[in-house]
Design a protein that fits this description.
The complex is a heterodimer of chains A (about 250) and B (about 350). Chain A has about 250 residues and is α/β, with parallel strands linked by helices. Chain A has 9 helices and 10 strands. In chain A, the strands form 2 sheets. In chain A, strands 6-7-8-3-9-10 form a 6-stranded mixed β-sheet, sandwiched between helices. The radius of gyration of chain B is 21 Å and the shape is globular. The chains are: A alpha/beta (about 250), B mainly alpha (about 350). Bound molecules: adenosine-5'-triphosphate and magnesium ion (MG). Adenosine-5'-triphosphate (ATP) binds next to helix 1 of chain A. The site of adenosine-5'-triphosphate has 11 residues of chain A, from helix 1.
């Protein structure tokens, strides 16, 4: 079986500090893998290496068996790697609607069209409206993204990823800082993706109950290295996680 | 129809709509309402600067790229036709050849500047454009065999555009329809077309990506937009439209020299016009260019009147003395930028949103 996504000996150094250390891991199509680890373990950096925001010092990234290490972030996006960011990363002065529509437009490969009126592409707008609906932001469609409360910004962040319709979904703590009643919207979306069956999902998440429910598999990063990998119940019970991850969680 | 013409980007404010209609109507009726060479000359400058400011806004306001090389492209257009007309004689072929060559030069230059320096930080990019523009200015004055040096080039234009044409002009509503009037209307019509084309570009899917890049380049990349391509395209387009504005300038003035098209003063004026009108709103170029050029050309006259009226009041009389006009222009602009940071168009649109 070819992995939907695979990293081989993936490594990045910042000066002397090895933030991601020779991580080799394959992600089977249609599975949801949770990536856990304490703060500063290298989870976000690992994501940045996969989606192309950072270039690896060593090792490689493979998509459907093809080496994509040389591709830029936009190229990887077109190949089907989609990414939501841990720190909300929006177009602040553009409307909520436009934030999503831009993702739809990129997916449709329409960016270089200079001669049509953007608003005449009703199909793109309709698609953006559908996505807007799934994160319950329809009522706020005309607000500037920067004017949204934090929870809504997180939803918009996820909505942009949904609008890209990638094959690989990478969520970086999508529910962080959200109020309790907002979290289910995001989790429902991720569940919905799972039931589609063909989407490969990578989820960085600190909430262990969420991980336990959603994940098919957990990998643990610690000091940039992959230190545990396996069935959720097993990994959570393993001493290394109890010590390296949950120990810190409990202490907090 | 109007929706398509304006690319779905309507004024979205009643006051702005009225203002725009007034400006456009004013520009088209100038020869009939305000007779005299000066009024026509100011109106023509407004038209040319609408194109120039709009093209600058495409780069600065929409894409968020700060460049000081914009008047260089303006100058390339003006020198292009001026040189071609000097060498090839006053024919339309010469105009076309000059404009075509100028567009090619601008295309090449903007591509090179774009590709070489778009990868560097915004600050360095601004510096690079400054350096290139300065070098070009020096070059233009050095190559005096071609450019006429500091004196510039006085040119003969195709007969249709000269005030001596036709020998016996027809009168219409008391205005003699000579080549000057024909030039003016050709210029105004070209301005409308070029403005609408730029309005379309910023309201196309491409134009939306430019705004996304201005807002958050990192995220635009993550969405799959290769921002280097978009930024370069924005550079090139903006340069080409500036070049066309330069062509119009030379054809209108029958002259081109460093001070009319290349100087840094014009670059500063341009910045002011964009900011006053409202960055990232094409309509801002219309409002900004009109207000700025009216103030620049008539503030002194206005002050002369005021100064005469106040001749008995000691301090006030000196304050409004016509020699102080530059001071007042400065005060006017500081105030307007302070009061309307989003520019006049931005302010009007904001108001329209607040009170539905
Ligand atoms: N661009 C960078 N330059 C230098 N060091 C960096 C850079 N990016 C990340 N690091 C370092 O790499 C390490 C891993 O950071 P990373 O953000 O990947 O952790 P994380 O697992 O996502 O943590 P958190 O749970 O807090 O989000 C940290 O020590 C961080 O300081
Ligand atoms: Mg992180």
């Amino acid at each position: 079986m070819t992995f939907a996504l695979e990293t081989r000996e993936l490594t990045i150094r910042f000066g002397g500090h090895v933030a991601v250390n020779a991580v080799s891991c394959g992600f089977a199509p249609g599975t949801l893998t949770a990536i856990v680890g304490p703060n500063g373990a290298g989870k976000t950096t690992y994501f940045n290496l996969i989606s192309g925001q950072l270039k690896a010092s060593a090792g490689s990234v493979h998509l459907q068996g093809h080496d994509i290490s040389g591709l830029s972030a936009p190229q990887r996006s077109h190949k089907g790697i989609g990414r939501a960011f841990q720190l909300t990363n929006l177009f602040p002065n553009l409307s909520v609607m436009e934030n999503i529509r831009l993702a739809v437009q990129s997916r449709a490969g329409m960016g270089l069209n200079m001669w049509s009126i953007w608003s005449s592409h009703k199909d793109l707008i309709r698609r953006a409206e559908e996505v807007l609906e799934t994160v319950a932001l329809t009522a706020k469609r005309d607000l500037a993204a920067a004017a949204l409360p934090h929870g809504d910004q997180r939803k918009l962040e996820v909505a942009i990823l949904m609008a890209l319709q990638p094959d690989i979904f990478m969520f970086d703590e999508p529910t962080a800082g959200m109020s309790v009643d907002e979290v289910p919207v995001i989790l429902d979306l991720i569940r919905g993706l799972k039931t589609q069956g063909d989407k490969t999902i990578l989820l960085v998440e600190h909430k262990m109950d969420v991980v336990r429910e959603l994940a098919d598999r957990i990998i643990v990063l610690h000091n940039g290295a992959l230190v545990a990998d396996g069935d959720p119940a097993e990994v959570i019970a393993s001493p290394i996680v109890q010590e390296a991850y949950l120990g810190i969680e409990v202490a907090k | 129809m109007l929706h398509r013409l304006l690319s779905g980007d309507l004024p979205r404010s009643r006051v702005l709509a009225v203002l725009l209609i007034l400006i456009v109507a004013g520009l088209f009726l100038v020869p009939f309402i305000f007779p005299g060479a000066k009024a026509l000359d100011v109106a023509a400058k407004i038209c040319i600067f609408i194109v120039l400011v709009a093209s600058f806004d495409l780069l600065l306001g929409y894409t968020g790229i700060v460049s000081f090389a914009h008047t260089m492209f303006f100058g390339i257009g003006a020198y292009g036709v001026a040189i071609a007309l000097t060498r090839l004689g006053p024919t339309w072929t010469a105009v076309a050849a000059g404009a075509g060559l100028a567009l090619l030069v601008s295309l090449a230059l903007s591509l090179v500047i774009g590709l070489f320096s778009l990868r560097v930080k915004a600050m360095f990019y601004a510096m690079i454009t400054l350096a290139v523009a300065t070098a070009f200015q020096t070059l233009a004055s050095q190559l005096s065999d071609f450019t006429g040096g500091e004196d510039g080039l006085s040119i003969r234009v195709p007969e249709l555009l000269t005030s001596a044409f036709p020998e016996v002009p027809r009168l219409f509503l008391g205005v003699a329809l000579n080549g000057k009037i024909i030039s003016y209307y050709l210029l105004a019509a070209t301005t409308v077309v070029l403005f609408l084309v730029m309005l379309r570009i910023v309201n196309s899917p491409f134009g939306r990506v430019l705004q996304a890049i201005r807002e958050n380049e990192f995220r635009a990349e993550a969405l799959g937009y290769k921002t280097v391509i978009y930024r370069t395209a924005s550079n090139v387009l903006s340069a080409l439209f500036a070049t066309l504005a330069g062509v119009l300038l030379a054809l209108w003035l029958h002259y081109n020299g460093p001070d009319t098209s290349l100087s840094f003063e014009i670059m500063i004026d341009l910045l002011l016009m964009v900011v006053i009108g409202g960055m990232g709103t094409m309509y801002g170029s219309v409002v900004g260019a009109t207000i700025f050029l009216l103030a620049q050309n008539y503030l002194q006259d206005l002050m002369k009147v005021a100064s005469r009226g106040l001749s008995g009041v000691p301090v006030l009389r000196d304050l409004v003395h016509p020699d102080r006009w530059l001071l007042w222009l400065g005060v006017l602009f500081i105030l307007s930028v302070y009061r309307f940071p989003a520019g006049i168009v931005g302010k009007l649109r904001m108001k329209a949103v607040v009170k539905p």
